Amino acid sequence: MALDGIVTRAIVHELQAFTGARIGKIYQPSTHDLIFILRGFGGGKLLLSANPTYPRLHLTERSSLNPSDAPMFCMLLRKHCEGGTIESITQVGMERIIHISIKSRDELGDLSAKTIIIELMGRHSNIILTDQATGTIIDGIHHVTPSISSYRVVMPGVSYTEPPQQHKLNPLAVGKEQFVQLIAAAEEAALLEGAEEESEPEEVIEGELANLLKSLEEQPADGSGGPSPSGNPVGWMVHAFSGMSPLIAGEIMLRFKESGGAYDGPFGEDFPLRLWEAFDTVMEPVRACRFTPVAGPSSKGKMIFSAVPLLQIQENAKPYSSISECMEDYYGDKAERDTVKQRVSDLIRFLGNERSKNIKKLTNLKKDLDEAQDAERYRIWGELLFASLHAVSKGDKSASLVNYYDENQAEIVIPLDPLLSPSDNAQRYFKRYNKYKNSLRVIDEQLTRTHEEIAYMESLLQQLAHASLHDIEEIRDELVTQGYLRDRSKKTKKKKKSAKPILQVFTSSEGIDIYVGKNNLQNEYVTNRLASPNDTWLHTKDIPGSHVVIRSEQFGDATLEEAAQLAAFFSQAKQSSSVPVDCTLIRYVRKPSGSKPGFVIYDHQKTLFVTPDEDLIRRLPSSYK
């Protein structure tokens, strides 16, 4: 995990500026995330996330869509913390645990003190509200029952218990002499452990019982009990020091080697002092809270970030002015995208199957069309047989007749059924002619409809690629309305839905609003109801994508370029270059009667060519309206 004790220390240091700030509003946009609106000291939005994959705490500028009905935990925090003052923000040692102390007035006007505990520990992450006076848990964003954990319970009314102690050393409190002694002690302990393993005791305890006994043993707080420092220095540092991630331990070893430290495995005399020097160069700015956040690709191509400079990032290192800015850029919308992927998997599978079925149907229709193209030949055969009944006898397998429809009056051989009379053979060809003639009309209709179905499925798949959690439900409701899916909420009382969808609105560099539709409901509202006749409408040319509207009659080239960027970015051609984007006035855009949701036709357009720039899109301010 990139978020270690050092990054946590950087976050807490940055948030000290908000000690004394007031908590204005509290929102819970998703199951794991909370947003605190801070008032005073410049203000800001604080994101608290107990996401099991991306737990984090930092200031954010990202707009989020909040549910109309706040979840219970959010309501509880509003009751106890809204209007309260942040007294302190502290880190527990070098652990990924942060305490935010808040003082506020209760319903009776009396002062009360609460603590919000943020535990950033992977899948065990949690946000817990406690009463300072009693240490009792008021509630947690994730409940932990006795059936889940026998060590501690996170439920209302239970005394708060810290996560299990790892008995590691604080790397910021270790000096040179102690560091050298730790290496010696750990090396000796590793040798003794190796000797004990070689002795092979008579009875060896294995399995779950062995793991239980090992967990009950208190780890010595001297760095021993783990890997040998000489054999595995990275593993030893991670084992010995609190808040030390493999990333930082690897950075220390890289600096050790860069400084000329001789390390090829065996324990040498200069090894402890050389390792200390590398260790201290990393820890010294952390002790002094001099953080210079950076992100970029490692030597293996994996994106990493840190609160201190890294030699591991050789090229394309991106510096940041704050750790919050760094984390905001690094995490982006990863957490939401992962949640969306889980929620849309069934829809993607359904739409993919529907698209495949229609492509197969299209192939079959084209075969039928090729056969039906012979309809005119059957009419000619029937008429030639009727004109020459005297020249054909029952029992003939074919008839060679003059083709009066041919300019050269060439003979034509017509296949016959010997069991039928010449007249019945002619009638059979006329029936076949009428059948294919009628089917041509049906096939043409089916081809048009099938092409529309494929385009519709592809547009929905593109919309799901950019969908937020709110957008997913609108797309699902659309599929129910169109008859593709059954309404799963028929048995439950459905809430009255607002006729106006919530839209993401970007602000151009010229201060003009640019509306973006993320699904067909939003596209139709933006284009057909919200926009004025002289507003400018944009859409990728012949590529599924969002409807984009510039809500102004007057704007410069910068706004037009940014709107085209948005149209290309929120389309199926997001990863392409020189994407064609058509733009025209709303007055020239219309929806054909009976067409699929989101489908429009337009004219008087001009085409721009843009290459989607994600950094530019991220820089544009946005909100939800």
UniProtKB/TrEMBL annotation:
GO terms for cellular component: RQC complex. Residues 505-591 form the NFACT RNA-binding domain. Pfam families: NFACT-R_1, NFACT_N. This is Rqc2 homolog RqcH. Associates with stalled 50S ribosomal subunits. Binds to RqcP. GO terms for biological process: rescue of stalled ribosome. Keywords: Protein biosynthesis, RNA-binding, rRNA-binding, tRNA-binding. Key component of the ribosome quality control system (RQC), a ribosome-associated complex that mediates the extraction of incompletely synthesized nascent chains from stalled ribosomes and their subsequent degradation. RqcH recruits Ala-charged tRNA, and with RqcP directs the elongation of stalled nascent chains on 50S ribosomal subunits, leading to non-templated C-terminal alanine extensions (Ala tail). The Ala tail promotes nascent chain degradation. May add between 1 and at least 8 Ala residues. Binds to stalled 50S ribosomal subunits. Belongs to the NEMF family. InterPro entries: NFACT_RNA-bd, RQC_Subunit_NEMF, RqcH_bacterial. One of its GO terms (molecular function) is rRNA binding. It comes from the Bacteria.
